[in-house]
Amino acid sequence: MRVSNEYTLRIVPTAADLARSAADVVSETIRDKPDAVLALPTGSTPLGMFTELARRARAGTTDFSRTRFFCLDEYLGVSKEDPNSLTGWLFREFFTPAGVSAAHVHTVPSEPADAEAEAQAYEDTIIRAGGLDLAVLGIGANGHIAFNEPGSARDSRTRVLDLTPESRDQAAAYWQGTFPAPSRAMTIGVGTLLDAAKIVLMASGEAKAGILHAALRGPISPAVPASLLRPNPEKLIVIADAAAARDL
Ligand code: GLP
What we know:
The protein is of the alpha/beta class. It has seven helices and eleven strands.
């Protein structure tokens, strides 16, 4: 483990180690505060962590019965029941197998009548919950965190934005169904994430090595949204497997 004046960095050998290490941060957070407020990501990176956390929940070693959850982001125009929705992803991969009550899960509006008002309401709900105790994040190929695409401001809040062509391509790779992958999303903002008491940024695989290096060692700039998490020595824990950490 390396502690710098900008973040704590844990480099672990494999994706399985990454899953356990990230799950440990979640378990410790809940052990210290059973009614903690967590924000969780989608994507392939956290899947191993979710499997591990669901196993711990079933084994009774991590108790999510009082934990409150916020989804980080969602496509616009995709119903929550659609298998492609990010909300559906989180229920399938984590909430349902971990036995989390749907009543404890806040989901990002996906079909808002008034996007601005509903984004503000989501932000207000986080504040009313006492703020995020832990935000768990992956990193997009272009450096996005949640769906804060390049150009996102450090003080941005929950809002709707257009996805970049790279993110649309990434979404399309997972997409199943007859209508095209969406081009807009609602996401928790960078500022919302920076207000969390603790932030875990996960990166796995060689394909993330370049962007992780840019996020951690490059300029702090909206051009690479994950870089905006720095400097944050008290809060930010970066966990990367050896492949993703290749250039660090
Ligand atoms: C998605 C999500 C992000 C996620 C990222 C990386 O688009 N909005 O929250 O961190 O892309 O996904 P993956 O882990 O599959 O590389």
